[in-house]
Structure formats: C-alpha cells, structure tokens
Fold these 3 entries.
Entry 1:
Amino acid sequence: MCLTGCAPVALRVANTDRIHLTTDNTGPEAYALLQHMEADRQAMVQVFFPCAASTETAPVDVLALVEERSVRRAVPPALDGAGGVLVSHSQRVVARPPTLAFAWQRTTAYTRALFRHELSHRLSARCTPQAPAWLEEGLAEVLSTAVVSGGTLRVGVPPYVFHGNGRRVRVGDIVPYHVPPSRLLDLDALLALTSETIWVPGNTDQTAAHYASAWALVALLVTGPPELRRAFSAYRTALHVGTSEREAFRTHLEPHGLAERYGAFVSHDARQTVSFTLERADEAEAPEERALSAREVDLFWVRHVAWHTETGRADALSSLDALVRREPAARHSAEVAALRAAILVEAGDLYGAAQALRWVDDPEAVAFERVALSVATEYTSPPLPGEAPRASLEPVARETLERITPRASTSFEHEVLARGWLSLDEVERALGEAHAAVALDGTCGPCWVTLGLAQIQNQDAVHGVRSLRRGAALLGQAHGAASWVQRAGLFAYGAARRRMCEALPPGDETHFDDSEQAAVTGEPEPDAGVDTPDALTADMIRTVVRSHIDEVVACYENDLEFFPRTEGQVVVSFLIRADGTVERTGITENDVSEAVGCCVRRRIAEWTFPPPGRGIVRVTYPFRLSYSE
C-alpha cells in the first residue's frame, strides 16, 4: 500500500447514463470496453434479470484497474487475490453506492468476463438478494463466458473442465480452468455453501472447486432439458417475490432429482450452449470520456478505499490531506468536510467528525450529514468501533427534520431522514422515508435495513424481517452485517413491544412470567367461558372471535420471526358493553411472550360484538397457538 511519496496514478472516466467507468488505462481500450459493457448489460437484463429493466435506475459504478497498487487500494484485503469484486461501502454519513471493481486482464475477452461476473452480482442484488451462494456465484460464472453477438445471447461456454490431463484448451475466447473431479463438491455440500465459505482465502484450488461446482449446477439448470430450465426460472421468480429459499427450492427444484443429474453433468465434459434472442437494443449514447483532475483523483480514492480498516482510513485521510495542502480552501468544502467526518465516524471518533463538519461555512450544505452523525450510535446504524462519546453529538431536532425533508432527492437522504424520524419515535414518517429510499435505489442495503426496522416498529415484523434479510444480503460481509442486523431487529421489536404494551388501557390483572420467552401461531380452542344474557350467546361470541382469528395469528407470527419454535396459550378476559364494544381487556394466563399478549389485547379492544341488549358481558377466551413447519 502506498500512502505518501508515490507518483499519483492518472485516472480516466468514460460514462454513459447506465455505466460510470473509471480506469487507470489511458489507452483507447477504455472507450471500447464501455461499449461492450453496455451491450452485455442490456443482454443480461433482458434475459436473466428483467426485474432490473425499469428499477435499475442508478448507474453502475465500475472500476477497471491496470496497476497492481490501484487494485490493492480498491479490493478489500479479505478478498485479496480475487480478480474482481462487488464492493459494498459503508454509507453511515455520506452516500457511497456499491462499486464493481476488477483488474484489467490481458485480453478484452477476459476483462469482459470479469465485468459480466461482477455485474451479475449487482443485478442479483437487485432481483434476488437472498439468493444462496451456489446460485449467485454459479450464475455469475455462467454469464461470465456468455457471448453477445448478432442479436443473441449465448450461454453455456464452459469456464471449467473436469477431465483430461489438465491440458488447457481454448474454447472460443476462453481457456477453461481445469478442476479435477475429485475436488468437486457433492450436491449437499454445494447447497450448504454460504457467501462466507465459498471463497477460501489463500486456497486457490479449493476456491476454484467451489466455483466450478456452483457453475456446473447452474449450467445444468440453464442449458439442460426444458423441464429443468422451466423449474429454474420458476425458482428464481419465487425468490424474487419473497418466497424463502428453502421453500422455493423444495417446490421447484427438489422434485427433479438434481443430485443424479448434477452427478451426470460433472462426470463428462460434453457441454451444450443455449441462445436467447434479444430485443432491439437501446441506442447507445456517446460516452463522456475525459481525464480526472488531481482533485477528482484524490476524492475518487477517498470514496473507494475500505473505510472499515485502519489502513483504508489512513489512505483516505491522506488523500484528503493532500488535497487540502494543494487547495487550502478545500477544507471548507462541504464535500471534503463530509467525507472527513464520515471516515472519522468509522473509527469511532464522533467528536472529530463533528468538528470536521463545523469547518463548512454554510451549515445547511451539510444538513443531512449532520443528522446522520446525530444518529450514528443509534441501533439503526452499524456498531462503531471503540468508544462513541454520545455527549459530542447534537440530538436530532424535529425542526431540522421538518426543514430538510422537502429537500430530500436521493436514496441516501431519504434513508437519513428515516433514521432521524425513528430516533424521535415517529414511525409512520420513518416508514414513508424508508420506502422512498428503496424505491429510488433497490440495491441500497442500509435503506432496506432501515425500512425493516421501521416496519418492525410499526408492528409488522413479518415484512420487517424480510426487509432486514434483504438489507443484510445487500450489505454482504461488510461490518458483520448479518449479526448486527439481527441485533438491530431484536432491539426494534423490543421497542415496539414496549410502546404497544404501554399504550394499552388498564386491564385485568396480568399474570406473566418475564423469564419465559416464547412465541405462538395457531388455532384457538372453541370453548370460551362466557357469562351472557340471552341476547348474546356463546356461539355468537365464538363467531366474532373466529372472524378475527387472522389478527391473532398475525400477532403470533410476528413473534415467531424473532423467537421461532415456541408455542403455548394466551387466555384473554374482556368486557362487552351494552353497545357491543369491548373494554377492559386483560390477560389471565400467558405462557408465551408479553408481546403476543399485548398484541392480542390490542386487537380484541377494537372488535365489535352483537349488542347484549342489557348489562355488561364478561368473556374469558383461550387462544392455544402452535407453529407448523
């Protein structure tokens, strides 16, 4: 890594509306590569990722690098040795969209192959973010060798061969990599791979075996018999609409005897290709191509190095310092100050971050960044390293949020507002901003996480957890995303539970052992203890309760998202007034969770029964709830 004393690397950009290419290749290849990228992107979207046709509005940020030191700055250390990577950046204080980064290869064909592989990850993040590792990497490998020519997209050219003596023979523009059959995974082991285990640092052979196995399965599903192709399409569609991966696999792929077919596929190297006819491509615009100024180069690297590592932060701050030395006035620039603050936040230095923002002459120029900094230690943001002195932060002011809300125009700004409103317990306003954020950029991992937390706070844990999972998948391995998002979800659910229980009116004495953490789903028992006049019979009460049973089940299913495989009974007592409305709900028995009890009480309080005609009716009703696989 070179921080100081190194000759700067010249960078050029070649941009269209859909792709922003930055490269240190100063030759004519950059312009030609961009044209190939446009053709590849359109073909892949048409055939394999139609869901991205109208929603992939943000340009793809592509970084194609020749010099090794540039590659090492752009590719996270954990993926050192990878030819390319889709990098998810922290955007706690400033917007940093994902970067598709790869090393410029010895031929255009190999460079395009890397681009298609990484673009597949970007498009998968848009359409099926919860895709398992075998699907995401396998499809990326299948598309890496795709051929776009003459109005068709041809797939099936093998990037791997499994037999022979290891002699590498060219197939079209590609020389396949030899992987001995003994290294390939069986189907169960392949399906068990995760995004953390499919890449094995320092073990090229094992990594190649994992990727080759994933390619073989997806190639079988894409180029195999028609029934397999249809099943694979249905499987990916199910993932896109939110079906769990396990259920989608069981429904669409499991019935086709994949283990036997997969074994037969890898047992020989006879391959077939499949061609798809493309619709007329959009007329490609003339790209903007120019060299970046020294200022732009510094700011580019500040945004694209890894802030979650000490080395990356030192690199970024060094670039900012170099810029300020050349241009002292840059210290007061909103962009420079916001970037410095964002980097310092990643180191846990909130005081330094606040000081950096104060260098800006016009505070309104960094209004969104100031709000983002104020909620940097909230559960809606990834945990900070070391100590995070809360005293150094300005609390979010409602007046500030009201003032800047009309100015929000980007997914980042809407997501910051959502975090701000959540910090003030304005859940509905947070929901609106979070929905606006994901509508503008469906590949924004933090936006989906914030949306999920707002949904959970709004008593919708089922959709909230789904959004959290999507956000975690988009964040990838950055910042320990999976564990942090899970903890944030639990915190949000706990906050929602407390708010819901505290908002309930006084009821009968509640018996609940807080040490019991359970959950529920299910069917109520038909017997209800009822003291009724003749005008309101027990059967009439049961009929009303059963008409609302989905509401009770929803309370249970929300809880199951966080406390699975729990079941039990909630017995609710309530009074029916003379006009049929409910008052004074209470819990007489609860061996599940407090959240379910409060939720059921809240729902029952909104029900209306046939008027008893006289007096008040007391009802005791048991809900026996259990989950099913």
Entry 2:
Amino acid sequence: MKQNLKQVTLITLIALLTNLFASFTAQAQEQFSYEQEARILYDLALYKGVSDTDFEPDLGGVLTKEKGVVMLLRLFGVEEAALALTDAEADEKLAMFTDAADVGLWAKKQVAYAVDKKYIKGLPDGSFRPKQALNGKLYCSMILQMLGYDGDFDYNTAATSLSQIGGLTSAQAIKFNSDTAINRDSLVGISFGSLQARTKAPDSKKVIEILIEKGIVDKQEAIVAGVIKGLSSLTISNGQLSPSFNPSIFQYTASVSSSVYSITVNASAEEGKVYVNDTLITEDGGSVNLSTGNTTITVSHRSQFDELSTDYYITMTREAPPISPSESSNNNLALLSISGGSLSPEFNTNITNYSVSVTSAVHHITATAELADASASLRINGIATANNTVSAPINLVVGENRVVVRVQAENGATKDYTVTVIKAPKPLSPKQYSYEKEARKIYDSTLFNGVSDTTFESDLGGVFTREQGIVMLLRIFGVEEEALALTDEEVDSKLALITDAADVTHWAKKQIAYAIDKGYVKVMPDGSFGPKQVLNARAYSSMILQMLGYDGDFNYRTAALSLAKKAVLQLNKQKTLIVTL
C-alpha cells in the first residue's frame, strides 16, 4: 500500500513539474502584440524597458500607477524637466496625498511633476495609490490630461476619447476601455498610437510633431521609423536622382545637358501637401527653370495643418553650352571716349560704368570705342559700329542720357559699358543773375562757397545736381560739420538704404548719408536717390521744408509756395533763418 502511494505521489510531482516547465516555455515563446512598436519607441528614446544599455522591453511586465507616470513623462519628452526638481520641491508637491510616503524614491520627482502640471489627479479620499495596478482607462486618462483635455472626457470611455483625436484605432479603444490591469505590451500599444494624437485646439498639433519641434525626436529618424510621413514619391522629368528616392533621404543631385532649360518635379504624399519652391504642386507637377551650373530645388512636404515641414533638396546641375576652343571669349574694350567731355572715372578696361558732364550748348555727342580683341563686335546704343570708329550722333536731352556700348566676343559672350551723359540746362541770361547780391551776402557769412575756396566766385550759372544741392543746403543750415563727422562705416550703413549708393560722388557721401538719416531728403519710390539728377526748384524747396520740420505738411508741386508762407522760422533754438524767394 505504501509502495503504491509513493508511486502515485511521484507521478503527481512529475506531472506538476512538466506542466510548470511547459508554462515557462510558452511564456518564453510568447509573441507580444506590440514588440515592433516597442523597438521603434526604444530607438527614438521614448521607451526604456528594463535595461539602460540594451533593448530589453519586458513586455510581459506588470505596471503600477507610478510606473505608468514615469513612462508617460518619458514618452512626452518631459522626464528631464521632472528630474530637475529638488527633493524638497517634490516633497512639497506630494504633500497633498495621504499616502505620499508610498511613492517609490525612483518615481517621486516624476509623480510630483505630473501632479503639479495636473497630468494626474488624486482620488476622492486624498490618496494617490502609487502601487495600484495600471489599467487602460487610467493610462488613457493620463494621456488626455497631458494633451490638454482636462474635463473634456469621461474616465470610463477615456480610450474612446483618445481614439477620436487620432491616438488609437476603434478596435484598440474597445480593448483598452477596461479596468483590467495592463502590462508593458499594452502600454507600448497605447503610447505608440498616442504619438498621432492631437493636442487640444487652438494648437492642435500631433504629439510626434511637438517632439520633433522640441528636438526630442530627430525628424529623419521619425520618418525612417514610420511615425511621421515623408514623401511617398519624388521624380524629375529629366535626369536621374542620385541616390534613388527614399522618404528618409533628404539630399539629392541630378544632371542635365545644356539643352534642358527647365524640368518638372513630381512628388506625392499619403497625407498633407507638397510644395516645390514654396508653390503648391499640381497634378502636372512643379516646373522649375534651370540656369547654367547648379540650381537648388526645395520640395517641401507639409503636414495637414502646416505644423511640420519636411524639406527635400535636389541640386540640379545644368551643363554649360559647349564653347569651341577656336573662339575667343574676350569682350573687353581697350579704349572708350565721348565727344564733348571726359569720362569719370578715367577709362579702365575693368570698369563698366562712367559719367560725363556737358554744357547746355552740346546737343549731341559721339562715342568711339576700341576693342581689346578685333574678333569681337560693337554696338553703341543698339547700332552696329566698326572698331575704333566714331559712332552715329547721339542726341541729348537736359539731364541724364545713357549710352550703352555692348561688346560681343567671338564666342557670343557680351559685356556692357555704360556712360551716363549729363547735359546741363540752358542758363539764365548770361551774367545777369537775379540773386548775385544775395550770393555775396551768404558768401560773406560763410554759408556759400561758390567754386573757389579763397575768393568770391559764385558761378551762379552752374547747374546743380541733387548731391550738390544737399551739400550746399547742409552748409546753409550749419550742420555740414556734423555730417562730416560721420565715420565711413556709418556712412555705408546709411547709404545702404538706396539702390544707387555707388553713384554718389565721394565728396558728397557723408552729407547725403546724414540728410537721408535725418529725413531731410527722401528716397524715390524705386529705392534710388538719383545723386546726378539735375536739381529743380521744387526739389530744393522740398528739402528746405523737410529740414524745417514740415514733413507731410506740404505738396511737392507747390513746395516753393509753401516755403514762401513760412519765410521766417525759428531754427536750432537760437538761430533765425530768413529765406527770401
């Protein structure tokens, strides 16, 4: 009898051990639902598992409420902010709970941070219950709190609410709307889905987009992982992309021949919008003109509400047209002259812009140009002209007249030399000027120089340009010394506001810079100043009114009349300027 009992006991023990071993084997071979998602979150540094160095997700691990809080803060990229709390700050924030002492030391700061930010709440009895098993409803509620939906959802349907903002599928919502404890596998499933959830309006951004904007997640790694969508296709009408298109590769190159002047870029995306050089792409693609050499094309994939933009760059290289070795590329002039005046500055092969001043008696001029290479050809103001030969007469008007000398090299390359011929207006009756006595008076008061630094030579018949008018006006108003005190750097900075700063003569640069800065003169609508333009009475009267503080109080066309009405004005506190018209 005893022998039989021993046999039965032994058989029972063997059976128990066999079942236990089979159970352990089954657990070891279990394939968890979200193992791939756990790997993605781990690679993005949003999930740690049970190892600080290796991927050990422990997806079967059971979770408590405090563990859920720690993992949630890590997912949202704010764990470091929580760990920055001092122990005293953490204790102060946890003091509201009756069971604060039960919170694990490793989780104190994270729980305190989450409580302070109202991501989690205590229970009606004043406790937190950190060791309570974490369930789907509770974890989904925490996520909704972090997304700003406090008070906008029912705890018992938290998973459904999360699915409605893109965080879960409807099937997942049904599964996780439960009080049943969840393991790490379920937490990973909810966390991974929540990357696509949107924060509460008006921001309404996806969690993953926020993590990328904050630099917590690398955009390229996110595209590789599939948590954000890049382009699904990218092609060009000519040439071959190198490397071949891949949504996670953002830099490409391609080459085309010199006969290709434009290409069409086609791109598509599963969601969002696609732009080519900031223009929304159409069904026909985006057309881009190509220059010889490199042209960079930017293809932007923007999310649904333009919160996130992923840019792809294509550097297109268009070959230069072939040039025959026998053809010269020399398109320089050796000499250039204008009848009736001298070039300023003196001619230099490498200088392409000049000016010439002529009197009112000069009604036309001619230009003579000598080629540096006889194989090149000449056109002066569009008319073919033989090398080193006087051009056809060029009629002049009062003011500026442009003469363009175009040199075309044997290989077709062109260069333009431009001469601005400034014709003076006809003077008043010779030597019978209206204000000669007044000129003498202001000369004696050192407010007017004329054309000599030592004797009275008023040159009242001399034609004024805008830059000359500014210089004399600042002298009359006694502020020329202030203008001349400007440094070269200050002058360059102020003249950068006008497009033709290079045309200002060196002796007038500081005065013009000073006048523009003070608002005494205004820039023209096209951004230019026109320093070489002939000065008229309206313009000069306007400058005076500007200096007297009447900006906006007069009409340009009646500036002289306005100035007459304001003949005597207080200036510079103690000085009185009497303007006689």
Entry 3:
Amino acid sequence: MFAASHELAFSYENRPNSEVDTAYVAGRPVRQVVRLTRIDVLYQGAVLRRYELAYEPALAITGRSRLASVRECGAGGTECLAPTVFEWQNATAGLGNESGLAATVVNAGYLAESHLWNTADINGDGRSDYVWAGGTSLASATIRYRLGLAGGGFGPEVDTSIACPNGIGVPFDRNGDGRDDLLTIPAARIWTIVPGTDGGLGCPGHDRSPGADADGRLSRPRSQRRRSRRHRLVRTPGFLQQQPGRAGPIRTCRRRILRGTCDPLRAIGSGRVRDGTGGHVPGRPGQRIDLDGDGTEELLMNEEYTIARISAREYATEFFDGSFYGGVLFDFNGDGCTDYAYKHYTNRLRVRIGGCGLPWSGPELQGPVWTEAAILSALDWNGDGRDDLLLRSATNWRIALSAGDSLPAIADTGIPHGGAEAAVAADANGDGLRDLVTRAGGQFRLRLRSGVKPDLMLAATDGFGVAARYTYQPLTAAGIHVRGTSAIYPEQDMQTAATWSQSSMSRTAAARVPCRPASIGTKACASICWDAAC
C-alpha cells in the first residue's frame, strides 16, 4: 500500500469557557469545547498551503463563536497574504414598544384563553393574524379576525357570522397549503373545519381542496379508513381529548353544503362528538411538533395526568409524578426535537428533553425555583435558535434563557405584562422573528421582536480591498416574492417568512493589486489588477 502524498491537517484550540456550546442531540448531551484554528495542506509531509482562522474576541449575543478572518499562507506557512475579514449581523435581545388593538372577546371562565383567541396565518401570507370569539356571550359569539399587514399592523375586523359557542377551536393546517384552518365544535357538536383562504376564513364545509370529498365530507385517506387506533379524539367543552383503550375506526362525517352561505351545516351521517374527560392539544399555531426528529409532525394530547404522544406509526404515554398544568412545548436545545417545560409541584421549573423518539426517554432537567404563576410561554428571547421560557411575575415578564443543557437564573425583562393572563409567540410582521402577543383590558397587545435575524454575514473583504456585501429581507417584503397559483396537489404554492439575500461587489479606490508572495504563485504585477489601464 502506498502512502498518500497529499494530506489535510486540522488544528484546534479550546474555546473560552463562556463560549462552550452545549446542547442535546438525539437525546444525548453534546458539548463543543474546541474550535478550528488552522488547516494545513501537506505534500510529502511539508506545508504547501496554510489557512489560519481567527475569531471575534467576544461571544455574540446568540452565544455563537463567529469567524473574524481567514489568512492564506504559502509554503512553510511563513509568507502570507493579508487576511480576508468578515462582518456579521448582530441580534438585539428583547422586545420593542407595545401597541394595542381593541377587540371584544367573550368572557368564559371554563375555556382556556387559547380557545377564546389566538393567532394563526389564515391567509398564508407569512404573517400572523388575530382570530377570536367575539360578542357579549358564548351563546351568541361568532368567529372574527383581523389580517396581519406589512410592518406589524392589522386590517379591519371581519365578522364571519360563524357561530362559535365552544370557542374558536384549534388552528392547524389541515391540507398543507400554508394557510391555517380552524377545527371547531358548533352547537350541533360535530367536528367542523373552517378553512383558511387567500381572503381570510371561508365557510365551514365549503372547502374543496384535497382532503375534502366532493360532497364536503372531511375524511381520512381511503387506505387508512379501516385502520384501528387505540386512541380516539373526543371532546369536552373547549378541548380536544382522547379515550385510551378503545379500538375502532375513526368515523367520518357527511355534511350537506348550503351553498353560498355560512349557515350551520346539517349532519346526515355519524360523527357526533361525545363528552369525555381529559385535556387539550398543546402547541402554538404554526408550531411543528416533531418528537422523533424525522421531519414529520406528531400529536401530543394532554390527558390531565399523562400526555399521549401519537404519530402515524405508533403511540406512547408519558407519565408525571404530579401536575404539569401550564406547561409549554418548545425546542429547548435547538436539535429539532420537541421538548416540554412545566412547573413542578416542588416549585421548580423542569424541562423534559424530547430524546428524539416517540416514547419519552429523558432526561428531565431541574431548573431554578419559581413560586409564581404556573403558565409558561416559549419565546426565543436572544435569537440563538433555542426557545426560552417567558414567565409571568406579579408585575413584569421574566425570562429563563436556555443554555442548551440547563436553565440559568431567571431574569427580569423590565417589561410589564399589564395583567395579561397568557402570551402567544407570533410573527406579526412576517420578518421571521417571533413577536409577543397578549390580551388585557379589552385589547390585543403586540410587542415586535427587536432587531434583525442574527449571525448572517454582512460582508467579506479580502486583503486587496475587494468586498462582497450582503443584504437580507424576508420573502414577505414587498417586491421580493409573490405566491403563485399554478401548483397542483400535492404541490402547494407557498408564502413564508424565509430570508432572501442579495449580494454586491465593491473595492477600494483604484489601486493595483500587489504581487502575491512567490511561494503562493507568481504573476507579473501588471496582470493582477482591477483597472483596465493597469
């Protein structure tokens, strides 16, 4: 066997203690304690090229160690070009000023706040919209909404005239078209879909998209109609529920369409909802619940004393040693697998790491002491890609930042909550950052996320003064992207808040590029320049 003539050698250094990146990947702790500092290209054991990497002296606000420069050196690593330096876009922690919008939301103490109002992207434009049960009482309440606009504003109130005596239901994207629909329970106690459309909410049962039969029946795919499930969805006022241990097909419901109206639908088949005992479906609108990290969505069902974890292939039950009321789903460590945080009966916050598997496999991390309200919210406060915990104290919002493997001490944000009972993370202006929405004093209150998307490269400038500069905008910005209309199912025309980049080149004042060191490769100085008159 012949020895290789060329090799690549990598050199590392220890990160400063404050820069150690810690997270759980596939349910196991991973600590990145070193960083790359040099790459050598070797020929017959001798250095042919060397690339030296340097980093910013301070950790970014997101907790990342960012590359500051790369320098290329020739044979032996002695003769070097001036380094190429990098500039980065910085995050700003926290939220902006509060703006309010009046809304008459019905009062119903037995329904959770999320069933009286919520945010959802019902028209699929990449911006969150307000949806609520409006009126003086639940008996006469109707579903109403305001569409999100560019800049974080909202359009006029629209009353759909759709009765919602059991609340607005659960927002979810039923057919993958990028528009959130509502799964509701009208007075007839029959599961009803209120579809999201380009113009807002449509009429119940008028959906003709794939997944709805020609007569408006909302049913499972034919290949799955005979398949039994141990868990069946049932209902108690305002909540989705589950009855374990009952095997049987999920029944479909035929509905007669009253064309051209939004009148209640009349059931002509089975599918009436029964009462039961249990909890609700946790998760904020637009949140992808992925328990095993395979990219497909799963379902969690709050059963009051346990949580059912359900996928298309299997199910499992997650047990607790006490109440987990007020818990929240979030991505604590940025591994793409859903985790769960709650207040333990010992008055400590606890985080259950998802484990990237359907059955929960732990671990459960013990957080700081918390003796106030048990209702938790998830919000990426510092833009590091990990969800943090937003907590409601007596007067202000407090934050517990995720360190990837622990929750440090709880900090006061200095932002008053104004008596809000709950908070929702939403993208009101379509910039790809999560904003904070609350309800108090007859108003929806919005605080936009401060700053811009972090750690995107702004410029790279080489030693000769030649620079590439980058600007960024979300796809929701005017003139960037317009959603098409020609896609055929299962393909969909989509509008998201993904980031769009544009680059430009520039250089310093007219000057000839200096000769490269002989060890890197020589050319006549006159032939390595930017000016035609060189």
